[in-house]
Amino acid sequence: MDASSRSTGALERSAIRKVSLRLVPFVALMFFINYLDRTAISFAGPNGMNEDLTLSAAQFGFASGVFFIGYIILEVPSNLALHKFGARRWLARIMVSWGIVAALFAWVSSAEGLYVLRFLLGVAEAGFFPGAILFLSTWVPAAHRAKILALFYLAQPLTTVLGAPLAGWLMTHDGFLGLAGWRFMFLAVAVPAIVVGVIAWFYLPDRPNRARWLSQPEQEWLEGALATERETKDSGGSHSFRSVLDNGRVWALCFVYFGFIYGLYALAFFLPTIITGFQEQFGVSFGLVERGLITAIPYLPAAIVMLLWSRDATRRGVRTFHIAVPALIGGISIPLALYMGSPTATIAVITVTACAIFAALPNFWTIPSRFLTGAAAAAGIALINTFGNIAGFAAGYATGGLRNLSGSYTLPMFVVGGFMLLSAILMVGLDRRAKSTGGRPGEHGPDVDAHTKAVG
Question: Which pLDDT score is estimated for 4?
Answer without folding.
Answer: 53
